[in-house]
Amino acid sequence: MAAEPADSNFATRRKPSFPIGDGLRSYLRRYKRERELSITYERLRDFHEVIPLTDADGRATLWDTVIYDAAEMPALNEALKQVYALLKVDGDLSVVQHLYVDRVDFCTFGNSTPFRIRIVNAYNDNQDYFYVKKADASRLYGLELEHLLSPNRLNFITHGATLVEEHVAGIPGDIFIEQWLGRRPELKAVRVAKELVKFNERCFVRLLGDMRSYNFVFVVTPDFEEAQLRIRAMDFDQQSYNGRKNFYLPQFFKENAALALFCAKHLRHETAHQYQREEQTLLLQRASLASDRLSLLLHEMARDPIAPPEKVRELRASLAEHYGRDAYLRCESMGALVRENLESIRRHVGRPVVPELVPE
Predict the structure, then answer these.
(1) What is the pLDDT of residues 139-189, one digit of tens each?
(2) Residue 133 · residue 112 · CB < 8 Å
(3) Considering only CA atoms, which of 136, 132, 154 is closest in space to residue 145?
(4) H/E element, 79
(5) 61-71 residue pLDDT tens
(6) Domain parsing of the chain, residue ranges
(7) What is the pTM of this model?
(8) Which of 47, 113, 210, 217 has its CA at 20 to 30 Å from residue 237's CA atom?
């Protein structure tokens, strides 16, 4: 059984930014995602100089450190601290007075062209990050679906055309492949493969695309015998936009080939199917716990034109074949397709994952 690799460089470049409609804005206000902010994305764009940012080994990164007018810096730093307080402690400024803004970085790579703010504790030099980005409706749906359907909680705030996100900590997938995969005895191979299968299934059911290795992280937690592992998405620009089914299956990206081969080596077909079904069951449990909120989100998502009609038609035909359910052919939106995916796993239909499938 072969499949077209989901190499999406072209698709990713062409993905537009979608404005936040009234329905989604109302949802965000209802669940306190929309708040008044003391900073905007456009204000951060008003920098005067950039300095290329290098890593600890002196190699160039995708980020530049930006410099603002000296007269603007005190007010800008205070505004950024207020945003951090709102993100972390519901705006309680009394507990962040000892923090300071150490650096503001800017990245021109990708759709969201984000700013990354480094916040440092003056007493102990502990640091944290948050991001300021252009608000995009499809990205907001991706963040909310991650919050509701994954084992991870996400903090983010919107204000008009500005989006503020907390930092997702972990080892980037490409670094994990290069330095950790099969090289760390504390990480049991089967446990790594299990999490890859579960992550693959989560992305597919909730239609989160473009999960190449540099768009997700591995979170390693030491345990009393063996380290625990979880995979977290950290980029949500490609939520429910592409029309190709394999775009939502991380196993098919060439950047993830080493991970797919690792699964094929360490998991039997029956075991992979077991882990896939376990994650489906957890998805349904999370959906049930957040049923009212999820229903409202998918209602707004179904009304929002976050993908061209031809992409919806292409994807629904593939999903109808995959799950063997003609109900997909009546779906007219990406939101409806996510809802139908949840219904399909509730009915326990569709083909199991096949660990032998690797990128061509």
Answers:
(1) 999 999 999 999 999 999 999 999 999 999 999 999 999 999 989 888 899
(2) yes
(3) 154
(4) helix 73-89
(5) 889 999 999 99
(6) 16-166, 170-346
(7) 0.91
(8) 47
